[in-house]
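Progress report, Aim 2. The chain analyzed during this reporting quarter is listed below.
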Amino acid sequence: MLSALIQSEAAIVALVVTLSLVAVQLAAQSYSARVIEVFRRAPDLWILMGIYGIAIFYGLGVLKLIENPLVGRLSNLEGHVSFAYYLGVFAFVALVPYMWNTFEMLKPSTVINILANKITKENIKKTFGFKGYSYVVHKTIEEKFERDPLQPIIDIARGSLMKYDYETVKIGLAAISKRTTTLFENETSKDSWMGREEDIISLHVFSHYEGLAELAASKNNEDSTLAVIFVLEKNGITAANKKLKNATTNAIRSLKKIIIFADEQKFKKAELKANESVLKIYEKATKQELELPKDILFPFRKSGKGMAKENHEEREQQTVESLEKLIKISEVQVKTTQQVVEYLEKIDKALSKTQK
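Predicted structure tokens for the chain:
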């Protein structure tokens, strides 16, 4: 019985290891090769192999004792045999939680949340070669990407977008948004080696958002573009509430670029939502008395021209209403208000020519 038990345990270990490696390979193909590191660091497989290793070698030790006639006459091995059986039962039962955790690990949300935990201010700064108060130049560009905590999730989102797996894209964006929002909430205007730390973090994060939005637009996927806009709006409002001028400015400028992508692809909902998000962020910044650059007030320039050219009356009206709302928000800034009025007049002229 001991011999049969040991052989069955060894066979199970071989099957578990083989199937686990296959699962890791499939996950890497479905998401990104970077998820291999997640599975490698997961303790489940190593714990299970440790349990089976102890059970197998203990059983072999008991078999060795049974073969020794001297030990057999002087000692009762019943306790050792029973313990070997109990270990075997425990090893079989341990398969249940292992399989359960393996199924959980194969879910994209689990992998993404594990990767998102690495998105910290210090890790983002290390991406730029900045550690503490010293600057270390990366030896290769590959080293920079390896240090980027956002890159694995962005890779998963891009791969999912190429496969039309929009749910995984939204899960990835939600995970990044949750972590970056926490970073902005805890951020202060402390100076660093290339300016303010908020500027480093926001530029890096928002550039990833822009790239994902551009890819979504090229795939004619308005839903994913909208998801990026929602995330940028949330981050921008958080930055404005914390009076982070650079992060707020970068959020609005990223939304301006997404407006261009949406206008080129005729994404009506995404374009209007981006315009609305800019207004919300700017309004929040105005309440916090943040002095943003003047050009930040013109996120509608590209979409306004496109709307006039295509004669979309509903979208034209909504753009004009958004600009009028912008005037009310910036009443205290006389020069800025005058610029917006002049821009409205240009839109009116463009609309008149189009109607003719």
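The chain has three domains: 2-105, 108-292, 300-356. The longest strand covers residues 130-131. These observations will guide the mutagenesis work planned for the next reporting period.
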